[in-house]
Design a protein that fits this description.
- The protein is of the alpha+beta class and 516 residues long.
- The chain is 58% helix and 14% strand.
- The chain folds into 4 domains: 181 residues, no CATH class; 82 residues, PAS domain (Beta-Lactamase, 2-Layer Sandwich); 68 residues; 147 residues, Heat Shock Protein 90 (2-Layer Sandwich), CATH 3.30.565.10.
- It is elongated, with a radius of gyration of 46 Å.
- The relative contact order is 0.05.
- Helix 4 packs antiparallel against helix 5.
- The strands form 3 sheets. It has a 5-stranded antiparallel beta sheet. A 5-stranded mixed beta sheet has the order 7-9-10-12-11. Strands 6-8 form a two-stranded antiparallel ribbon.
- The protein has 14 helices and 12 strands.
Length: 516
């Protein structure tokens, strides 16, 4: 019972305070009637001491309950108040003449409030208590057992239980609806926090405006670029741009030395005239457009490369057959060599383009780096045995990396091939390559440096170093470094360039094999 009463206090503090005020007002009205009813027509015998003390006690009790309800409902006091109040009202109803007085309605209202606040059996206990109090005050105490009055008392008690049941059912529905509303409100607040945080962290600016171009909200990027404050309108330069650009059109303007692209989007729902501004740096828009162009160009070149491959094979085969003809002169043999050389160059370009278009998923595995690099070095030396160069390897035998071995081999062939070509140009007799592997300071990555003494890369070329089809060689494809970086990123690695005193250093940052 005490546990249920504690639920009463927790669930209905507002209603309890409202009822405390209502009860005090009723008590004051009862006292006023007691003072004015000198004839006894309303509340019965005006000389009754019981009536005097009951009305006085009712006011005092109601005043105390208001204080308790306002300062912090006490569970035991709140529970006891329902029983004491209904008992007082039952005595006053008996003195005032029974069910014909207005006290019967006041008692029923108390039963309803008690069952709204009280869960389960406590509400029915109040109804049972009222029934017993009515029987006691109307029949047992005055020793009157008139059949009609007794039937009315029984009907009144049944009405109390019926009200209790209906109120309990209503209270259950109200509590379920309130719990659902509270849950939905909490979910909406949570989603609002998520959406607001996402809005703040967007890489481009967002501004919400009304039909008068007054700023409703904005994120940090928009404030940084436009210098916005809550309330004032948009900057004049933005206002002048927007009327000429509607829907999904983009206007370009310069604000605070920043070249911006602003897109206005009308809202379909909400207040008429409200709209959003999406603000991006023009350089980002240009970069995105460039990426789309590159993607389209990549698909086009892959298609063209596939179509060229078959006739190129036929051309190369015909050149080889022609070179085997015994009566060709030396000048004619030279021409067949030129054909073969350029066919190989075109074929290499086609292979690089098709490799980019296929984008095979990496098959990563744990590689012990030192023996793998030794095997790679042997293959690389055998393929370039006609050239004079040195290839050194510095690697701890315990280092393990997670990488697709075919991808790693292709990356190193591209980087070492480029490095060797430039090293032979810069130092024909002392060309050198060096592969150095070490663990980063945090122990999470292994860095593999591919170092050459080829004189380095010109500063003006660094910005375009990893761009596709960018090359400084007349016979280069411009895809080697781009393909190497794409393969690195596919294996959760990164490829960086660092200049050295005598040449270049490409650093491949790879994941360690944590299962080794």
């Amino acid at each position: 019972m005490v546990f249920q009463a504690s639920e009463l206090a927790v669930r209905g503090n507002r209603l309890l305070r409202f009822y405390a005020i209502y009860s005090l007002l009723v008590a004051l009205v009862v006292v006023s009637i007691h003072v004015m009813d000198t004839s006894g027509q309303i509340m019965g015998n005006p000389n009754s001491l019981l009536r005097f003390w009951l009305t006085l006690g009712y006011v005092a009790l109601a005043a105390m309950f208001v204080v308790i309800a306002w300062l912090g409902p006490n569970v035991q006091h709140a529970t006891a108040y329902f029983f004491i109040e209904t008992a007082i009202l039952s005595f006053l109803m008996s003195i005032a003449g029974g069910f014909t007085s207005g006290f019967s309605s006041l008692i029923l209202f108390s039963v309803v409030i008690a069952n709204l606040l009280a869960p389960g059996m406590l509400g029915y206990a109040v109804a049972a208590w009222v029934t017993l109090a009515v029987m006691f005050t109307l029949h047992y105490l005055p020793d009157r057992y008139d059949t009609n009055v007794l039937f009315a008392s029984g009907f009144y008690g049944g009405l109390c239980f019926l009200l209790a049941a209906l109120t309990q059912a209503l209270a259950t529905r109200l509590r379920s609806a309130l719990a659902l509303a509270t849950e939905e409100a909490a979910r909406l607040r949570r989603l609002r926090r998520f959406s607001w945080q996402a809005l703040l962290d967007l890489p481009h600016g967002i501004v919400g405006c009304d039909k008068d171009m007054e700023v409703l909200f904005f994120n940090q990027k928009a404030q940084q670029w436009l210098g916005l404050d809550q309330g004032p309108g948009l900057p004049q330069v933005v206002r002048e741009c927007l009327p000429h650009h509607h829907g999904e059109e983009i206007c370009k303007l310069k604000v605070n030395d920043q070249q911006l692209a602003i897109r206005k989007v009308e809202l379909n729902d909400g207040e008429p005239g409200d709209f959003l501004l999406f603000i991006e740096e023009q350089s980002s828009v240009n970069a995105a457009a460039q990426q789309l162009k590159l993607a389209s160009l990549g698909r086009l070149t892959a298609s063209i490369a596939h179509e060229i491959r078959n006739p190129l094979s036929a051309l190369r085969q015909a050149s080889q057959l022609l070179a085997e003809t015994p009566y060709l002169q030396s000048s004619e043999q030279y021409l067949t060599q030129v054909i073969e050389q350029h066919c190989m160059r075109i074929n290499r370009t086609i292979e690089d383009i098709l490799q980019l278009s296929r984008k095979r998923q990496p098959m990563q595995e744990g590689l012990r780096l030192a023996p793998w690099l030794q095997h790679f070095a042997e293959q690389f030396r055998s393929q370039h045995k006609e050239l004079v160069f040195t290839l050194e390897i510095h690697c701890d035998r315990e280092l393990m990396v997670m990488f697709d071995p075919d991808h790693l081999q292709q990356i190193l062939y591209n980087l070492c091939g480029n490095g060797l070509r430039y090293a032979l140009k810069q130092n024909p007799d002392q060309a050198s390559l060096r592969l150095e592997a070490s663990v980063t300071t945090n122990g999470e990555r292994i860095q593999l440096d591919i170092v050459d003494n080829g004189g380095g890369i010109a500063p003006e070329q660094l910005a375009h170093l990893f761009e596709p089809f960018h090359t400084t060689e007349h016979n280069g494809t411009g895809l080697g470094l781009y393909l190497s970086r794409e393969l690195s990123e596919a294996n959760q690695a990164s490829l960086l360039y660092q200049p050295t005193e005598s040449g270049s250093c490409f650093r491949l940052m790879m994941r360690t094999d944590t299962h080794s």
